[in-house]
Design goal:
Structural class of chain B: alpha+beta
Helix content of chain B: 10-25%
Number of helices of chain A: 4
Shape of chain A: elongated
Oligomer: heterodimer
Order of helices and strands of chain A: HEHEHH
Radius of gyration of chain A: 21 Å
C-alpha cells in the first residue's frame, strides 16, 4: 500500500488566513458604519453638541466625546454637523482594534438623556440592528 | 395600498389599555396634563423598518418598530413603583406574544426596560416593546 502525505505550505495558508481576517474585519467595519449612520441620521441638531458627541470605542469606561451645548450658537445646519459627526465615527471605527471582540457606541453629551427620551436615537438604532 | 400603521397602533394601544391596574395613559398628540403625585404612562408608536419581505412586484411588506411606553411615578419615592409598573407592561407584551386587533396580528419581538431617570416631579422608567408584522 502506498504511503500518502499532504504537504502544507505554511506561508501560503498563513497568507490566506490573514486575507480572510482582513475581509472579515472590513465587513464588520462596514456594518458598524451602517449603525453609525443610523445614529447620525436620527440625531437632531441645534448647537450640534449632541450629534458631535457620538463616539465608537472598543474600550469601556468613560471614553468618548462629551460636548456641552452651553454658549454655542443655535440653529446650526444639520447636514454640516451630520457630516462632521459621521466622519468622527468613521475615524473611530477605522482606528478601533476589533480583535478585542467588543465595541460600544455611546453619547456622553450632558443632555444626551433628554435627547434620547425625546428622539429615541439609540433605542431606534438598537431595534434596527439587534 | 393604505398605510397599516393605524391598525398596528390600534392593536398595541388596545393591548396597553387592557392591562389590569394601568394608570392614566397619555396618548400621542392628545392633550394630557399630568397630575403631580399621580403615576401615568406615555405611549408612542415608533416605526423603524418598512421593507419588501420578498422580491418581485407588489411584494408583501415587512414592518418593524418600537412601541415605547414611558412609566412615570412620583419622584423621591424609590424605584419600586416604576419597576412594578414596567414589569406589568413587560409581562403583558412579553416576547412571542401576538397582539391581535381585527384582521391583523402584531407579533412581539422583545419587551425590555431601559435606564430610569428623573423628569420634573416624576421618575420615569422607559419600556421598549419591539414588534413586527408582515402585511
Amino acid at each position: 500500500m502506498a504511503d500518502w502525505s499532504v504537504r502544507v505550505n505554511k506561508s501560503s495558508v498563513s497568507a490566506k488566513i490573514k486575507a480572510l481576517e482582513a475581509n472579515a474585519e472590513e465587513a464588520v467595519k462596514d456594518e458598524l458604519e451602517r449603525v453609525a449612520w443610523a445614529l447620525v441620521s436620527g440625531s437632531p441638531v441645534d448647537t450640534g453638541a449632541y450629534i458631535l458627541s457620538h463616539t465608537f470605542s472598543e474600550t469601556g469606561g468613560k471614553a468618548g466625546r462629551r460636548i456641552s451645548s452651553e454658549g454655542k450658537p443655535r440653529k446650526q445646519d444639520w447636514g454640516t454637523k451630520a457630516g462632521e459627526a459621521m466622519q468622527n465615527l468613521r475615524d473611530d471605527i477605522q482606528s478601533a482594534d476589533l480583535s478585542k471582540g467588543y465595541g460600544i457606541f455611546r453619547n456622553r453629551a450632558p443632555h444626551a438623556v433628554d435627547v434620547e427620551n425625546k428622539y429615541l436615537v439609540y433605542t431606534k438604532s438598537k431595534d434596527r440592528f439587534r | 395600498m393604505a398605510s397599516i400603521y393605524p391598525e398596528i397602533r390600534a392593536a398595541l394601544e388596545l393591548k396597553l389599555s387592557q392591562i389590569s391596574g394601568i394608570p392614566s395613559i397619555a396618548w400621542e398628540n392628545v392633550n394630557f396634563s399630568p397630575t403631580t403625585g399621580q403615576p401615568y404612562v406615555k405611549a408612542r408608536l415608533v416605526p423603524t423598518v418598512r421593507e419588501p419581505a420578498v422580491r418581485g412586484t407588489n411584494p408583501q411588506q415587512y414592518y418593524q418598530g418600537i412601541f415605547r411606553v414611558d412609566c412615570y411615578v412620583p419622584d423621591d419615592g424609590g424605584p419600586s413603583a416604576a419597576d412594578e409598573l414596567a414589569d406589568k407592561i413587560i409581562e403583558a407584551f412579553d416576547a412571542t406574544t401576538d397582539v391581535a386587533n381585527g384582521d391583523i396580528i402584531v407579533s412581539i419581538r422583545y419587551a425590555e426596560r431601559d435606564l430610569g431617570n428623573l423628569d420634573g416631579p416624576f421618575y420615569m422608567v422607559p419600556v421598549n416593546i419591539g414588534w413586527y408584522i408582515y402585511a
